[in-house]
Amino acid sequence: MKKSSKIYKVLLTFFVFGFVIWFGGTLVRTTIAYDLFIPGIEMELKPQYTNDIRMQNIYLFSITALLTGITYSIAVISGIILAFLSRKEFKEKGWLFMAFCLFLLTIPIQIYYIYMDLKLAQAVYFQAVKDFFHPAIQEYFVQRFLDVKNTSLRTIMLLSALTCMLYSIWRPLEKKTNGVDENT
Question: Global pTM?
Answer without folding.
Answer: 0.85
